[in-house]
Amino acid sequence: MNFLTLLARNLWNGPSTEAFPFGPAVTPKRFRGKIAFDAPSCEGCKICERVCPAGAIRFTKTADGLGFSCWHDTCVFCGNCEFYCPTKSVHQTTDWHLSHTQAEKYSMVESGLIPNQVCVECGATALDTAPSVAAVKPPMSAEEVADLRGRCPKCRAKFLKARRAKS
Ligand code: SF4
Ligand code: SF4
């Protein structure tokens, strides 16, 4: 293709680049951006913390429960946490708006809390984590899962044992 044809084609097609920051920028659907955490669906297994190569994810025991934090300025966007999370409670969004001032660096964090609860059966204080029931046979109904959720780990195990014995 000669130069003039190429020039004419490029003029006809227009710019191939994004107009950003003076116009919208297209974000690919599979873009690996900011981490988001959904505490109610988290099982509290801490796999995400173990597989994070950057040490960006931390769980901290507090008086109110189990705190989750993910530091966006430490994350390397590898996707390990989402890949290994059994419930996808931690996942990558397509949000890439991460530029920040030096003063904001300590607030670039996604945080959440799995609160404490009182076990409906024995009264012990335990975390209100989502029960891990994906492999339970026969599959549990939503009512059973809600019932199980209100219990501490020991009472959950008893509940599941009694259910197995019945089936
Ligand atoms: S976010 Fe997922 S991997 Fe991390 S503790 Fe919760 S359930 Fe486990
Ligand atoms: S995407 Fe990778 S570096 Fe970022 S929090 Fe998840 S596991 Fe850690």
TrEMBL record:
Gene3D superfamilies: 3.30.70.3270
Record's keyword terms, sorted: 4Fe-4S, Cell membrane, Iron, Iron-sulfur, Membrane, Metal-binding, NAD, Quinone, Repeat, Translocase, Ubiquinone
Protein name, UniProt field: 4Fe-4S dicluster domain-containing protein
A GO cellular component entry from the record: membrane
Organism for this UniProt entry: Siculibacillus lacustris
InterPro entries to which the protein is assigned, alphabetical: 4Fe4S_Fe-S-bd (IPR017896), 4Fe4S_Fe_S_CS (IPR017900), NADH_quinone_OxRdtase_chainI (IPR010226)
Residues annotated as transmembrane: none
Keyword hit for Nucleotide-binding: no
PROSITE patterns, per the entry: 4FE4S_FER_1, 4FE4S_FER_2
Pfam families: Fer4_7
Record carries keyword Repeat: yes
GO molecular function annotations of the record: 4 iron, 4 sulfur cluster binding; metal ion binding; oxidoreductase activity, acting on NAD(P)H; quinone binding
PANTHER family, sorted: NADH DEHYDROGENASE UBIQUINONE IRON-SULFUR PROTEIN 8, MITOCHONDRIAL, NADH-QUINONE OXIDOREDUCTASE SUBUNIT I 2
Residue span(s) of domain 4Fe-4S ferredoxin-type: 33-62, 66-95
Ranges in coiled-coil conformation: none
